Protein backbone atom coordinates (compact mmCIF):
# COMPACT_ATOMS: atom_id res chain seq x y z
CA UNK A 1 0.00 0.00 0.00
CA UNK A 2 1.24 3.52 -0.69
CA UNK A 3 2.87 5.14 2.28
CA UNK A 4 0.42 8.07 2.41
CA UNK A 5 -2.29 5.48 3.10
CA UNK A 6 -0.45 3.91 6.03
CA UNK A 7 -0.36 5.20 9.60
CA UNK A 8 2.08 3.76 12.14
CA UNK A 9 1.17 4.33 15.79
CA UNK A 10 3.89 3.61 18.33
CA UNK A 11 2.37 2.29 21.54
CA UNK A 12 -0.79 0.21 21.90
CA UNK A 13 -1.88 1.73 25.18
CA UNK A 14 -5.10 3.66 25.65
CA UNK A 15 -4.04 6.61 23.47
CA UNK A 16 -2.61 4.40 20.72
CA UNK A 17 -5.63 2.12 20.52
CA UNK A 18 -8.14 4.99 20.65
CA UNK A 19 -6.18 6.80 17.93
CA UNK A 20 -6.15 3.67 15.75
CA UNK A 21 -9.88 3.10 16.23
CA UNK A 22 -10.63 6.77 15.49
CA UNK A 23 -8.61 6.72 12.26
CA UNK A 24 -10.24 3.49 11.08
CA UNK A 25 -13.75 4.76 11.82
CA UNK A 26 -13.16 8.11 10.09
CA UNK A 27 -11.70 6.31 7.05
CA UNK A 28 -14.78 4.08 6.89
CA UNK A 29 -17.13 7.09 7.21
CA UNK A 30 -15.29 8.81 4.36
CA UNK A 31 -15.08 5.60 2.31
CA UNK A 32 -11.27 5.70 2.27
CA UNK A 33 -8.80 2.84 2.48
CA UNK A 34 -6.08 3.15 5.08
CA UNK A 35 -3.73 0.77 6.80
CA UNK A 36 -3.13 1.38 10.51
CA UNK A 37 -0.26 -0.41 12.23
CA UNK A 38 0.04 -0.44 16.02
CA UNK A 39 3.58 -1.17 17.23
CA UNK A 40 4.23 -2.13 20.84
CA UNK A 41 7.20 -3.60 22.69
CA UNK A 42 4.88 -5.76 24.82
CA UNK A 43 3.39 -9.08 23.75
CA UNK A 44 -0.25 -8.96 22.68
CA UNK A 45 -1.28 -10.61 25.93
CA UNK A 46 0.51 -7.99 28.06
CA UNK A 47 -0.92 -4.92 26.35
CA UNK A 48 -2.89 -2.99 28.96
CA UNK A 49 -0.76 -4.24 31.86
CA UNK A 50 0.73 -1.25 33.69
CA UNK A 51 2.29 -0.64 37.07
CA UNK A 52 0.14 2.46 37.54
CA UNK A 53 -2.35 4.48 35.55
CA UNK A 54 -5.58 2.73 36.47
CA UNK A 55 -7.58 5.98 36.46
CA UNK A 56 -9.16 7.61 33.44
CA UNK A 57 -11.09 10.89 33.25
CA UNK A 58 -14.79 10.66 32.48
CA UNK A 59 -14.43 12.63 29.23
CA UNK A 60 -12.20 9.87 27.80
CA UNK A 61 -14.88 7.24 28.46
CA UNK A 62 -17.51 9.55 26.93
CA UNK A 63 -15.35 9.95 23.80
CA UNK A 64 -15.03 6.18 23.42
CA UNK A 65 -18.75 5.58 23.97
CA UNK A 66 -20.26 8.60 22.21
CA UNK A 67 -17.85 9.47 19.39
CA UNK A 68 -16.56 5.98 18.63
CA UNK A 69 -19.88 4.30 19.47
CA UNK A 70 -18.17 1.62 21.57
CA UNK A 71 -19.78 0.59 24.83
CA UNK A 72 -17.19 -0.03 27.52
CA UNK A 73 -18.24 -3.12 29.51
CA UNK A 74 -19.29 -2.49 33.12
CA UNK A 75 -16.88 -5.22 34.25
CA UNK A 76 -13.95 -2.90 33.43
CA UNK A 77 -14.98 -0.25 35.97
CA UNK A 78 -13.81 -0.59 39.58
CA UNK A 79 -15.44 2.63 40.81
CA UNK A 80 -16.11 6.27 39.98
CA UNK A 81 -13.97 9.01 41.52
CA UNK A 82 -14.58 12.72 41.90
CA UNK A 83 -11.04 14.02 42.09
CA UNK A 84 -7.43 12.96 42.20
CA UNK A 85 -4.52 13.08 44.61
CA UNK A 86 -1.06 13.04 43.04
CA UNK A 87 1.71 11.97 45.43
CA UNK A 88 5.37 12.83 44.92
CA UNK A 89 7.77 9.87 44.64
CA UNK A 90 8.98 10.47 48.21
CA UNK A 91 5.34 10.70 49.42
CA UNK A 92 6.07 14.05 51.14
CA UNK A 93 3.98 16.21 48.80
CA UNK A 94 0.40 15.73 47.64
CA UNK A 95 -1.35 17.69 44.91
CA UNK A 96 -5.15 17.37 45.02
CA UNK A 97 -7.66 18.16 42.29
CA UNK A 98 -11.24 18.10 43.50
CA UNK A 99 -13.63 19.87 41.14
CA UNK A 100 -17.08 19.30 39.77
CA UNK A 101 -15.61 18.43 36.35
CA UNK A 102 -12.84 16.19 37.72
CA UNK A 103 -14.86 12.97 37.57
CA UNK A 104 -13.27 9.80 36.42
CA UNK A 105 -13.03 6.07 36.89
CA UNK A 106 -10.69 3.53 38.39
CA UNK A 107 -10.43 0.76 35.80
CA UNK A 108 -9.30 -2.82 35.60
CA UNK A 109 -6.43 -1.59 33.46
CA UNK A 110 -5.29 -4.82 31.82
CA UNK A 111 -8.87 -5.77 30.90
CA UNK A 112 -9.46 -2.25 29.53
CA UNK A 113 -6.28 -2.37 27.44
CA UNK A 114 -7.20 -5.76 26.02
CA UNK A 115 -10.74 -4.53 25.27
CA UNK A 116 -9.47 -1.50 23.33
CA UNK A 117 -6.90 -3.61 21.47
CA UNK A 118 -9.55 -6.13 20.40
CA UNK A 119 -11.82 -3.30 19.20
CA UNK A 120 -8.94 -1.96 17.09
CA UNK A 121 -8.11 -5.39 15.66
CA UNK A 122 -11.77 -5.99 14.75
CA UNK A 123 -11.60 -2.88 12.57
CA UNK A 124 -8.57 -4.20 10.69
CA UNK A 125 -5.74 -2.55 12.61
CA UNK A 126 -2.51 -4.56 12.35
CA UNK A 127 -0.56 -5.22 15.56
CA UNK A 128 3.21 -5.61 15.59
CA UNK A 129 3.76 -6.76 19.15
CA UNK A 130 7.09 -7.46 20.82
CA UNK A 131 8.58 -4.84 18.48
CA UNK A 132 10.76 -1.99 19.70
CA UNK A 133 10.70 1.24 17.70
CA UNK A 134 14.13 2.89 17.68
CA UNK A 135 13.12 6.11 15.96
CA UNK A 136 11.62 7.74 12.89
CA UNK A 137 13.01 7.56 9.37
CA UNK A 138 12.98 11.11 8.03
CA UNK A 139 13.28 12.16 4.40
CA UNK A 140 14.73 15.67 4.11
CA UNK A 141 13.95 17.64 0.95
CA UNK A 142 15.18 21.04 2.04
CA UNK A 143 15.71 23.29 5.06
CA UNK A 144 12.05 23.22 6.10
CA UNK A 145 10.68 20.40 3.93
CA UNK A 146 10.81 16.95 5.47
CA UNK A 147 8.60 13.88 5.84
CA UNK A 148 8.54 10.98 8.23
CA UNK A 149 8.58 8.00 5.87
CA UNK A 150 8.85 5.13 8.34
CA UNK A 151 10.21 3.88 11.64
CA UNK A 152 13.35 1.99 12.58
CA UNK A 153 12.60 -1.22 14.42
| Average pLDDT figure | 91
Beta content comes to 25-35%
Radius of gyration: 18 Å
- How many strand segments? 10
User: Helix segment count?
Assistant: 3
Helix and strand pattern: EHEEHEEEEHEEE
Give the overall silhouette.
globular
Helix content: 25-40%
Query: How far apart are the termini?
Result: 19 Å
Ranges where pLDDT stays below 50 over 5 or more residues in a row are none
What does this structure look like?
The chain is α/β, with parallel strands linked by helices. The chain has 3 helices and 10 strands, in the order βαββαββββαβββ. The protein has helices at residues 14-29, 58-67, 109-122; strands at 6-10, 35-39, 55-57, 77-81, 84-87, 94-97, 104-107, 126-128, 135-140, 146-152. The strands form 4 sheets. The protein has a 3-stranded parallel β-sheet with strand order 1-2-8, covered by helices on one side. Helix 1 (14-29) runs parallel beside helix 3 (109-122). The longest helix is centred in the first third of the chain and has 16 residues, at 14-29. The model has no long low-confidence stretch (mean pLDDT 91).
Amino acid sequence: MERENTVVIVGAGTAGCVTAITIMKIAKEENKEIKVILVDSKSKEMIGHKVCGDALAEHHIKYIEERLNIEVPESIFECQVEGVAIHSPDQKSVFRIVEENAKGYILRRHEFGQFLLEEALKLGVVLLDETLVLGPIIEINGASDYNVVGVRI
